[in-house]
Amino acid sequence: MINISPMIPEQWHGLFELLVMPINLLLPLQMQILSMAWNADSMGIVIAKRLFIFFPAVAVVVGLWCTLLTSYSLVVRPQRLKLVGTLLVLWWDVCRSLWLFWA
Hints:
Layout lengths: L12 H26 L4 H10 L1 H19 L7 H23 L1
Helix pairs in contact: 1-3, 3-4
């Protein structure tokens, strides 16, 4: 959790918490996804998960971070619709590459 509240003025606390909320939600989700892909009870399942699930999980986590950080810049970008369309195409490509990874 990001907590630098003492460093910012009192009148900016609400805006700061609003801006940091998506990052604070993504950090536990990232840990959950990566721990699901990395940990298991038996050694055979650990090897299978690390071969078939870990790299797709990393791709999803990287995509989530890039999408989140890009969404902050939507306010100041001149071609917002083009960026949103590009993000959708990129997620389509991630899904397609994951499907081909398992095929």
